[in-house]
Structure to design on (341 residues):
């Protein structure tokens, strides 16, 4: 029987896009992968039905997954009779972990906690920049190209005692609240699963979603994509936001009624920082690309560039824990997926 002092190198197969493998694993990460797993990093599976991967999958005890991993269906799992665990070197596992995995009794871990960090950093940067009205200042300076009077140009700007409404005490939402602590901001929180006492410990005041919308200078969304959260910010709730408020969305585009938000943005009443939209890529003629009160980015808040190394090592930490017979630090449980990203 495996004990915490026993170190095993489970037979592991990488299931992700080849470019994702290359981005995640530099030389140091590959060396560590070889130390904690019995694997061939040159074998990267994008199709569980591919004949050339049949032998590798048949012997796999662990899958190290990433972006581009295909769904683990019943048919896919039949090709992996020895599979016992799935470790995901990214955030959400909903795209590939299916009910068949739980029925099989597989354990699942994710590097979601590591992926939450850059999203929270992006969000805090957006909150502070929009409070300071940096985008307005940059646009005016670019257009007028002369000395500007900030007292006139940016009247009412600043982050002193601004109110920030955080929707969802997810890993990212909690990290955002934590990162905002050094600043002189009021933080509101809406999350139906968080008690008043827990919200207080986090450093936020719990409120209803409508009160949050009515009272916030900036609203930042960190709720999961669920049927119940679709268009959480619909036309009526967007209308509750104060004139000049900013909506930040780094979660999922479906949480906001894009048509209703676009109408508010075109009118100039609201501002937005949008890293996600519905559809994921707006049509080429969407006003969102050109509106001066919108910062639109192509889903870049999550781990990119040198941040991917953090994901790789977080996943390798989990794989090493599995090999030592230790519990995962970031386990994913079936019952939690119903209310998580």
């Amino acid at each position: 029987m495996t004990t915490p002092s026993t170190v095993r190198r489970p037979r592991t197969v990488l299931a992700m896009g080849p470019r994702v493998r290359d981005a995640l694993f530099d030389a140091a990460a590959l060396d560590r992968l070889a130390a904690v797993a019995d694997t061939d990093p040159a074998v990267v599976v994008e199709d569980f039905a591919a004949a050339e991967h049949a032998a590798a999958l048949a012997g796999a005890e662990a899958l190290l997954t990433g972006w581009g991993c295909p769904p683990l269906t019943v048919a896919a799992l039949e090709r992996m009779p020895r599979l016992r665990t799935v470790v995901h070197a990214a955030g959400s596992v909903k795209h590939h972990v299916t009910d068949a995995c739980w029925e099989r009794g597989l354990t699942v871990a994710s590097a979601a906690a590591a992926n939450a960090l850059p999203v929270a950093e992006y969000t805090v940067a957006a909150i502070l920049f929009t409070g300071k009205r940096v985008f307005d200042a940059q646009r005016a300076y670019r257009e007028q190209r002369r000395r500007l009077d900030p007292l006139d140009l940016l009247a009412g700007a600043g982050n002193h005692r601004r109110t920030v409404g955080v929707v969802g005490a997810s890993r990212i939402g909690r990290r955002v609240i934590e990162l905002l602590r050094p600043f002189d901001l009021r933080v509101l929180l809406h999350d139906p699963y968080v008690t008043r006492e827990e919200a207080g410990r986090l450093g936020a005041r719990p409120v209803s979603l409508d009160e949050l919308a009515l009272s916030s200078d900036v609203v930042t969304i960190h709720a999961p994509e669920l049927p119940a959260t679709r268009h959480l910010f619909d036309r009526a709730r967007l209308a509750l936001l104060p004139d000049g408020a900013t909506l930040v969305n780094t979660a999922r585009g479906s949480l906001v009624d894009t048509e209703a938000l676009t109408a508010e943005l075109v009118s100039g009443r609201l501002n937005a920082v949008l890293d996600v939209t519905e559809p994921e890529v707006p049509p080429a003629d969407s006003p969102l690309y050109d509106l001066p009160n919108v910062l639109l980015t192509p889903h870049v808040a999550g781990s990119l560039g040198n941040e991917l190394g953090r994901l790789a090592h977080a996943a390798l930490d989990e794989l090493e824990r599995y090999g030592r017979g230790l519990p995962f630090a970031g386990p994913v449980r079936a019952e939690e997926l119903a209310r998580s990203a």
User: Anything to note?
Assistant: The CA atoms of residues 190 and 209 lie 6 Å apart. DSSP finds 15 helices and 13 strands in the chain. The radius of gyration is 23 Å. The mean pLDDT is 94.
